Amino acid sequence: MASGRVPKTLRTVGWEVTRGDSTARAGARLRREPAREGRRYDLLLINPPYDALYDVIPVLDRHLAAVAAPGARVVVEAAAGSPVELADFTLISRRRVGAAELSIFSPVNVGADD
User: Fold this and answer.
1) Each residue of 3-25: b (16+ CB within 10 Å) or e?
2) CATH of the domain at 79
3) Residue 9 CA to its chain's centroid (Å)
4) How far apart are CA 88 and CA 16, in angstroms?
5) pTM reported for the whole predicted model
6) Distance of CA 45 to CAs 2, 11, 79, 113, Å?
7) Domain count, the chain
8) Is 5 part of a structural domain of the chain?
9) pLDDT in tens, 35-61
10) Is 63 within a domain?
């Protein structure tokens, strides 16, 4: 999606990107309170609109590690056949579910603080 606009709602770890928000604004919301307050999450579910996946991934790459606890699981839903990779995360599993594909990641810092 060349415009960098997210056409539908995307929610994760207490932030929300609504119709018309730019991915830059999404990043600002992601790093806002949770990271500033030191909150970390064990499970993060990322379900962007399929046509915005590759606009959202750079935002996640910049900010997701700040809110993922050591040993966390990050599940990213995408259209089947759309490869997903995240910086600072290791792919654990990829599963097809109908027309979707779930990619399950863990931070590379697994075991660092466990």
Assistant:
1) ebebbeebebbebebeeebebeb
2) 3.40.50.150
3) 14
4) 23
5) 0.69
6) 24, 8, 15, 22
7) 1
8) no
9) 567 778 888 888 888 888 888 898 888
10) yes
